[in-house]
Amino acid sequence: MNVADRCVIATDSEEVAAAARECGAEAMLTSADHASGTDRVAEVARRHEFAGFDAVLNVQGDEPFVSADALKGALGMLGRTFSIGTAAVRASAAILAEPSVVKVVTADDGRALYFSRAPIPFLRETRDADDSALLRDRVRQHIGVYAYTRDALARWVVLPPHPLERIERLEQLRPLAAGWPIGVAVIAGPLRRGIDTETDLAQANSEWSIFSGEPA
Fold it and tell me: What confidence score (pLDDT) does residue 26 get?
């Protein structure tokens, strides 16, 4: 994708690391005690061979079809305003009823206001056509990719887990609850689901079979 200077698969699984290396990818084993992907990435980023990198990009393992636009968008949020960036895509209101899909609402400057598995924004007056139209233009599906400055990554992982993070099982609520601004790049799409359910996994396996030419 020509986005990063170096790509490393961080995992606590020998099986995953071996499979990655067989495909020619670089893999590093980490502790099995990490509570989140960011904690795992931080362990790798602390190694001396990565000391010269100013920014770290974390693509979660359940986002196998993440686009270059999402990666570039997250990285592009880093700057004077944001030390953490992520991405989202415009989506239909249908995702509001799916707790497996993470939604995000943002301020006008792109700053994340909240991430949730619940329906946000929530349409209170379902019979109001104007409100329904406003909702349709504000639904955003979060994409599991994060960009951090080196300092932000190091500070994130020393924060204690926040109750909101534990309730929603969303690691990004830890820095958000601490008052850190997270920039959200809204990309045009296409809308690609992560792997959060058995149905998502079956669909991903089917798509991969088509892509690789292997039998489904």
Answer: 93
